[in-house]
Amino acid sequence: MQYRASTFKRESSPVTWEQALGKLSNPHPLQSWTWGDFKSRWGWQALPSLMTIAEGSWEPLAAAMILKRPLPRTPFCILYVPRGPILSYNDPALRTQALAQLEKIARRERAIFIKIDPEVVKAWGEDEEALRPSPIGGRFIKELQQRGWRFSNDQIQFRNTVELPLELDEDDLLAAMHSKTRYNIRLAARKGITVRSGSPADFAQIGEMYRETAVRDGFTIRPLDYYLDIWNAFYQQGMAQPLIAEFEGQAIAAVVLVRYGRRVIYMYGASTDQERQRMPNHLLQWEAIRWAKAQGATVYDFWGAPDHFDETDRMWGVWRFKKGFNGQVVRHIGAWDYPVRPILYWLYTVAMPKYLNFLRAKQV
């Protein structure tokens, strides 16, 4: 099929936007109107853009929640399409048209570059020697390279993840897990761990646990108001559900699940150092999986897996925990940049980070 007349056009209606995403394959919450609206409160401008079959048509071909960030004291900006664009990637003509349109938008907006990181599968599997490559992912990578796109040094989202199909009943899901994981789930219940559904009243406490988790595990987080903002926004739209693990009435671990389409994502997790020997996180994950299944989801997304499946990867410990639930490793193509202004792109992505690292080193 040819799409010569199809262009991305700005969409101003959140209802139309969500209806369009609902008709496209594999929509993602980071492409939702709620996410774009949220990011507009944190330094970005949302440019929701739809491509339809024909002018005035209600049948969407592609959607791109483009985020625009102006660069201070310059006429330039950067553009980012988180977990998008959304389209049928098995259609080569549509892939070509969507990329051409995004490149055109980047030039029109005076962007230094535009970044995309669609959930296009590159391969499935953990073992490097036994990967099952995706033909579509391989072809799309070649198309990106031929058009001048570059694999990004700045992978904002997780490139890989672990997905658990939810077609089996609960007993079969448990039976398929590693025996140690199944044992720990049952141990937590025997040792007095309980899990309850939360509400926005719990978000502040979850935020404090999240900050404690970041300090303990050595990763950087944003201000807590950032997380409170998006958790409340998702919750108000029926997209988020907090679950809290407790021992003797004291909250010791929590997750904030994000539901979109037929998928539930374990997008945020937090825990304290208390009662870890009671394995609260194992029971918490199991209850999250049960909740996702009860909502009619077909996939539970563990949201993140190592880039390299060995002990040198920063996510190795997290991976060992997730592996026990017997999900499937899904490797995506990652984030790609289209440098509209190559010299400024080099300054922004190479020279400036080196300079900032130099200044930080001098302060130590």
Sum this structure up briefly.
This protein has 364 residues and is an alpha+beta fold.
Can you give keywords for this protein?
single chain, 364 residues, alpha+beta, Aminopeptidase, 9-stranded mixed β-sheet, 8-stranded mixed β-sheet, 17 strands
Structure description:
The protein is α+β, with helices and mostly antiparallel strands and 364 residues long. It has two domains: 9-153 and 333-363, Gcn5-related N-acetyltransferase (GNAT) (Aminopeptidase, 3-Layer(aba) Sandwich), CATH 3.40.630; 162-331, 3-Layer(aba) Sandwich (Aminopeptidase), CATH 3.40.630.30. It is 38% helix and 26% strand. It has helices at residues 14-23, 33-39, 92-108, 135-146, 170-176, 179-190, 203-217, 224-236, 280-294, 316-323, 342-363, and strands at 9-10, 45-52, 60-70, 77-81, 86-87, 111-116, 121-124, 132-133, 150-151, 160-165, 193-197, 240-247, 250-260, 263-271, 299-301, 328-332, 336-339. The strands form two sheets. The chain has a nine-stranded mixed beta sheet with strand order 8-7-16-10-15-14-13-12-11, sandwiched between helices. Strands 1, 2, 3, 4, 5, 6, 9 and 17 form an eight-stranded mixed beta sheet that branches. β13 and β14 form a beta hairpin. The radius of gyration is 21 Å and the shape is globular. The mean pLDDT is 94.
